[in-house]
Amino acid sequence: GPLRAGQPTMKFVMDTSKYWFKPSITRDQAIQLLKDKEPGTFIVRDSTSYRGSFGLAMKVPISPSGSQTGTGTHSESDLVRHFLIESSAKGVHLKGASEELYFGSLSAFVYQHAITPLALPCKLSIPSRGRCQGQERCSERSLLLGWGDGDGPAVGRRLRSPAWLCAVLAVCNVLYLNSVNMETLTGAPAIQKAISSTFELETLPTPTLVHFRVAEQGVTLTDIQRKVFFRRHYPLAAVRFCGMDPENRKWQKYCKSSRIFGFVAKSQTDSENLCHLFAEYDTVQPASLVIDLLCKLL
Questions:
Q1: Does some domain include residue 68?
Q2: Structural domain count, the chain
Q3: Which Gene3D superfamilies match (predicted)?
């Protein structure tokens, strides 16, 4: 239906993810950040108890009364409750809430719960700006222009500002297709050749749903169903290139076609390059999210 006054858009949710998605903070840190905030203020982080899933910490308007979907509270006075967002091949889902839908991405989950609370105690409140663990406010301008610790342009060095590190993050679920040895080839020709080699296989590989995370430290892949691997990390220094298929070929997924992209990284065992191929899993979370950030970092 038409947007109501004050209702967030999906683009706004995705653009503000740097304020509400804090994958590396702890449960206690989330409580400290939220306990003095308005009801509905929230943080999504990586779950330490359930690999591949996420923890939702949110400030609630009243003292929690033991909902089946929550996973506990820090104290009655803090009014901060914790929920588990499970990841599966179907998408992400609020654990213990049978009436909840499956969503194709965390952004879609947040967007829907900002419109209606569903099984949550209240609607999520999307922040338009925020603070990163007590540091300076995250600045999109500093990310784009390359300013780091406030002491001038960060030319020829890595940015170390905790605020900047907090802002530099892009995540989405994708289908992992294949990894192809490229020897010394890199750039768009490597993506093109790897896809051609994959399509020429007698039996096409079976796609695997993975969580694709780009941060200042590099690329982290998590096999959500643990079918092919558990977790793989590619340091930023090892990544050579990232981009879409130059020929714009598509991977057939069920009855739909998905765009193909990949990144080239130096092998961890020798000096040759490997091209890792993926297909978009859901149009709600396009590959451009991770590609654009990775290209900026490179």
A1: no
A2: 2
A3: Pleckstrin-homology domain (PH domain)/Phosphotyrosine-binding domain (PTB), SH2 domain
pLDDT at 14: 78
17 domain-assigned: yes
Other C-beta atoms closer than 10 Å to the C-beta of 49 total 9
What is the C-alpha to C-alpha distance for residues 218 and 230, in angstroms, rounded to an integer?
17
Are the C-beta atoms of residues 77 and 83 closer than 8 Å to each other? no
Among 230, 289, 278, 229, CA closest to 253: 278
Question: Does residue 70 lie in a domain region?
Answer: no
Is the same domain home to 176 and 107? no
Alpha helices in 24-175 (DSSP H): 27-34, 106-115, 140-145, 162-167
Distance, in Å, from the CA atom of 18 to the CA atom of 128, rounded to the nearest integer, reads: 10
Q: What is the mean pLDDT of residues 256-270?
A: 88
Q: How far apart are CA 4 and CA 123, in angstroms?
A: 15
Q: What is the mean pLDDT of the chain?
A: 78
Give the burial string for 83-101 (b: 16+ CB within 10 Å, else e): bbbbbeeebbbbbeeeebe
Structural domain boundaries enclosing 33: 10-61+78-115
Q: What is the pLDDT of residue 120?
A: 92
Q: Provide the token pair at 25.
A: 């903070």
Q: What is the pLDDT of residue 233?
A: 92
Asked if 80 and 31 touch (Cβ cutoff 8 Å), the reply is: yes
> Do the domain assignments include residue 161?
no
Quick: pLDDT tens for 142-182. 232 222 333 333 333 333 333 333 446 788 889 999 999 99
Query: Tens digits of per-residue pLDDT, 189-231?
Result: 999 999 999 999 999 999 998 999 888 889 999 888 788 888 8
Q: What is the CATH number of the domain that holds 262?
A: 2.30.29.30
